[in-house]
Amino acid sequence: EVRFVESGGGMVQPGGSLSVSCVASGSYDFIFRTVDMSWLRQAPGKGPEWVAGISFSGGPKTYTDSVRGRFNISRDNSKNTVSLQMNDLKPEDTALYYCSTGRFYRNKDAPTRRGPGTQVTVSS
User: Fold this and answer.
1) Distance in angstroms (rounded) separating the CA atoms of residues 54 and 103
2) Successive 10-residue mean pLDDT values, the chain, 124 residues
3) Which of 87, 104, 97, 93 is nearest to 38 (CA)?
4) Is the dihedral of CA 55, 58, 61, 66 positive or negative?
């Protein structure tokens, strides 16, 4: 079983920045450095939305259109950690953010949250 612990959220004004992180752990056969990872989010009353993905090596990165150019996904395989740097935040970015394995999901196929998630609120 794979476990995720997300952290780093908070409240910020529009135009501000935040960074969130996720530490992954699992059974003996879970090798983080071989697994693609994603960040997803879920706003109140809405379904999960895939936000960004990164390959196992940290190479190819993909983003949903609404965050491209503002968000940057990265990973540190020595620490089993994947991070999301969010700049120029907008009120519509307000959601509970969580990570998952995999590099891309259509929203209808997006995995549900396994860990606690971390809340990001953008408000003036």
Assistant:
1) 6
2) 93 98 87 95 95 95 97 96 98 97 92 93 97
3) 104
4) positive
Question: CA of 97: how far to CAs of 6, 9, 59, in Å?
Answer: 8, 8, 22
Q: Which of 45, 50, 46, 57 is nearest to 71 (CA)?
A: 50
**Strand positions, DSSP E, 1-124:** 3-7, 10-12, 18-25, 37-42, 49-54, 61-63, 71-76, 81-86, 95-101, 118-122
Q: Kindly state the tokens that stand for 36.
A: 């693609």
| Residues pairing with 90 in the sheet | none
CA proximity to 104, closest of 59, 68, 67, 55: 55
Give the model's pLDDT for residue 29.
74
The pairing of strands 118-122 and 95-101 is: antiparallel
Report d(CA 38, CA 74) in Å as an integer. 10
User: What pLDDT is attached to residue 6?
Assistant: 97
| Rounded Cα distance, 122 and 124, in Å | 7
